[in-house]
Amino acid sequence: MSEKSDGRRGRRRRSDADRSATAVLEAAVRVLGRRPEASMEEIAAAAGVARQTVYAHYPSRQALLSAVIGKITDDVIATIDAAGIDTGSAYEALMRWLDTSWGLLDRYPLLLHPSVATIDPQESHESHLPITSRLERLIRRGQDAGEFNPDLSVTWLLAATMALGHAAGNEVAAGRMTSAQAGSALRESVLRLYRTDDRQRVDE
Amino acid sequence: MSEKSDGRRGRRRRSDADRSATAVLEAAVRVLGRRPEASMEEIAAAAGVARQTVYAHYPSRQALLSAVIGKITDDVIATIDAAGIDTGSAYEALMRWLDTSWGLLDRYPLLLHPSVATIDPQESHESHLPITSRLERLIRRGQDAGEFNPDLSVTWLLAATMALGHAAGNEVAAGRMTSAQAGSALRESVLRLYRTDDRQRVDE
DNA sequence: GCTTACTTTGACAACACTGTCCAAGATAAG
DNA sequence: CTTATCTTGGACAGTGTTGTCAAAGTAAGC
Questions:
Q1: Domains recognised in chain B with CATH numbers
Q2: pTM of model > 0.70
Q3: What residues in A contact B193, CB-CB < 8 Å?
């Protein structure tokens, strides 16, 4: 998915072309992450190339956007899967999921506020799917095992968890909380949503 | 604030001018509520007037936007104040605040996701202030009285509450939950965030 | 060092939007 | 009925965007 192996017969792809392409992609991740409505001009400037060079590698704004989403999604999936959501108790796994996702939100603010949905509802929902579907599975497992509060629906817990994550990211971005404060508040809050009523607090 | 009493000396302001102005404002609330990036053309069409007529009453897009925000804010403040946030137990007041705000979110989707912040961070923060400041006062009162969980900061409870409200609104908008389901999930979730650890569930 | 792929610069068309002006035509106020 | 006010359609300047093209410069590959 990431490798573009266009079968050219002639010479190899020149190295600076590669450099430009990746520079543009990385700049796009950075810039569009903060402001999805940023112009191609801005992205080009951030990448240190001319605007036309961007078009040399990505034929349209939409294409660049897709590449950005793809890159982020790949990374996100890999990171989450590496955290091993399906092992251990659901509670434990949830905490791991939270820490991992919190780190990802830090790295990719695009997953946050700027409402990815604003830019492309279709593609954004699909891009979120690999993240949410894993959490959804985890929630189901926890509820089935009696570890998680069964009063709140899976749908809602999913939405609420994402919303709290977004909120935490925002508070940090707005400078109202430190990353550590927000992270701990997020854990505590999610725990309160998920735990069964009889469960006492466990974490320190 | 709402009355524009321009001291004309000659004839009175014509009635159709008034009608147009309010039609435009109402249409703007509706249209910009859903999509803040909507063009003046769209708003005019929704109001059933020509684009130039919009400019006859609101000299610029920004002016119209301010009027929209002002109108919504006025209504929101009045509605919340009417709910009497400062009387009764903090818990009780919180539930009243929630119900009221939930209704408002239903009425003004602009307060929701479309990230008002996207359109004008400055003005949006000020427009949210009358809402958040009242909740903030309530949270403080509850924590001081020992009714609310003191482990989570006022700042965070504020952000988390708003976030959950937004999430609930979205779930309804996306058709994944009914308004009743989302409302009850919202109450339950907020309750879980605010209550002290020893408190047992009270609501039905 | 020569060839070729890539980049850059500048210019340009197409489009959408905001904001303005004017000249009729419609209509409410007196 | 008269008149000031309002609405409307057409036109237009200004701006900012995406996307394309061609010519000239630059650097990688052999």
A1: 1-59 (no CATH), 68-203 (1.10.357.10)
A2: yes
A3: 189, 192-193
